[in-house]
Design brief:
By secondary structure, this protein is of the alpha/beta class. It is about 50% helix and about 15% strand. The two termini are about 30 Å apart. One of its GO terms (molecular function) is isomerase activity.
């Protein structure tokens, strides 16, 4: 239920259960974890792109598996959240290569959580992001209570979460929830160009950059300045920095080898 393709220096993972708008099953979780492991182990792969097949990106948990009439009693959802969603969100966040997400169509519930866990999220302008959870009597999971609040502030996060409301990809970009929204017909190409560009980038500097941006949310300026000092020290010792400066001086494009 997840298709693995290789692009120009990157891996593309496509959620592929389009008859349910790519809703999550244990199989799909396993497919994503396997795809990430394969991408991580492949030295030729320097970035990952996650997207969906068909007209949807991901409709969150597959609710057909959850028919209360077929259960003995109320389920313990903390088990599936812990085992599947938290594991996946942590894996994406801790992945050591840039992870890009192209939200090609509707995203709901935990599907939004996965999209927002990636380093860069692009969406089709018209794609509905349907927060959902409260509409079926649940609470935000897959990190959405954290990403929505961090990126939107409490007023918008609370409004969206309590109403289970929707944003279009365009609104999500305007609100600062995602990197950019693009016309649907351009999304796949734009996401692939961007992923390939990051794959050609100075890998160590990109890793440190990601860590610096993330750390900034949690600490005062003084501590962040110290962190920048340390990171720049590391970046300055990398062959990619020498190549970057040399390429500038020689008026050519840099060719980063970095690992
Ligand atoms: C689906 C689904 C779906 C199965 C559409 N499952 N088939 C964590 C831990 C454990 C348990 C619970 O949850 C969680 C976290 C979560 O993710 S909770 C959130 C779960 N997801 C939702 O509540 C979203 C449910 N889906 C919808 O609200 C709509 O389908 C959306 C807004 C996604 C799309 O609406 P439309 O574009 O109008 O499409 P549609 O509703 O007609 O769906 C198309 C097909 O996909 C349809 O099948 P059918 O056989 O009738 O054509 C749907 O049944 C199926 N589908 N979502 N989550």
């Amino acid at each position: 239920s997840v298709v693995y393709d290789t692009g120009d220096g990157y891996a593309k993972l496509t959620l592929n259960r389009s008859e349910t708008l790519n809703a999550f099953t244990p199989d799909m979780h396993a497919g994503l974890m396997e795809g990430l492991a394969r991408a991580e182990a492949d030295p030729a792969c320097r970035a990952v792109l996650i997207t969906g097949a068909g007209r949807g990106f991901c409709a969150g948990q597959d609710l057909r598996d959850r028919d209360p009439r077929k259960m003995d009693g109320p389920p313990d959802l903390s088990d599936s959240v812990g085992r599947y969603y938290n594991t996946l969100v942590r894996r994406i966040r801790e992945f050591d290569k840039p992870v890009i997400c192209a939200v090609n169509g509707v995203a709901a519930g935990a599907g939004i959580g996965i999209a927002l866990a990636c380093d860069i999220t692009l969406a089709s302008e018209e794609a509905p992001l349907a927060i959902g959870f409260s509409r079926i009597g649940l609470v935000p999971d897959a990190g959405t209570s954290w990403t929505l609040t961090r990126r939107l502030g409490e007023a918008r996060a609370m409004g969206l979460a309590l109403t289970g409301g929707r944003l279009s990809g365009r609104e999500a970009a305007d609100w600062g929830l995602i990197w950019r929204a693009v016309p649907n017909e351009d999304l796949a190409t734009e996401a692939e160009i961007m992923t390939a560009q990051l794959a050609r980038g100075p890998a160590q500097a990109l890793r440190l950059t990601r860590n610096a941006i993330r750390a900034a949310a949690d600490q005062p300026l003084d501590d962040q300045l110290e962190l920048e000092r340390g990171f720049q020290g590391q970046a300055g010792r990398s062959p990619d920095y020498a190549e970057g400066v040399l390429a500038f001086l020689e008026k050519r494009k840099p060719c980063f080898a970095g690992a």
